[in-house]
Design goal:
Elements: H1 2-26, H2 32-46, H3 62-78, H4 81-145
């Protein structure tokens, strides 16, 4: 299980580096070739077209699991250390704010879906209650007419 904890820690570090790369790409002291490489990484990560298609079992996720982290690590090495350190500080501050905002956003979304479920249940109840009342009235009316 120690490898799982190490993997989670590495994933958190990559996430922080990805945010730091965003700031580094906008930093005036970042070399132009590093900026171009960062844009290429982001474009590839967000692109629906993969080097290895995801529908190929196991191999389909190699680019997400191996190539993207490798590209992020390479981009970090292209950026001057002091610039990357400054951008990592900004990224950690942003991630703390985003974490709080993310929790509030998640709560709002859950409440929204619960409200929709309640409204759908009320609507369904009113429709089916009306239908069953109409059927009862129709049966009673037919019962009174027949001799």
């Amino acid at each position: 299980m120690a490898w799982l904890a190490a993997l989670k820690a590495r994933a958190r570090a990559l996430k922080a580096d990805a945010v730091a790369l965003y700031y580094a790409a906008r930093h005036p002291r970042t070399p132009w070739y590093a900026k171009v490489f960062v844009v290429a990484i982001v474009a590839y990560a967000l692109s629906p077209i993969d080097l290895i298609p995801d529908f190929i079992p196991v191999l389909g996720f190699v680019d997400e699991i191996i190539l993207l982290p490798f590209a992020i690590a390479l981009a970090v090495k292209m950026i001057p250390r002091d610039v990357m350190a400054e951008c990592r500080v900004r990224a950690s501050q942003q991630l703390l704010r985003a974490s709080r905002i993310g929790r509030v956003g998640a709560a709002v979304i859950v409440l929204f879906w619960l409200a929709l479920i309640v409204l759908a249940a009320m609507w369904a109840h009113s429709i089916f209650a009306y239908e069953s009342k109409r059927e009862l009235l129709t049966e009673e009316h037919a019962h009174h007419r027949s001799p």
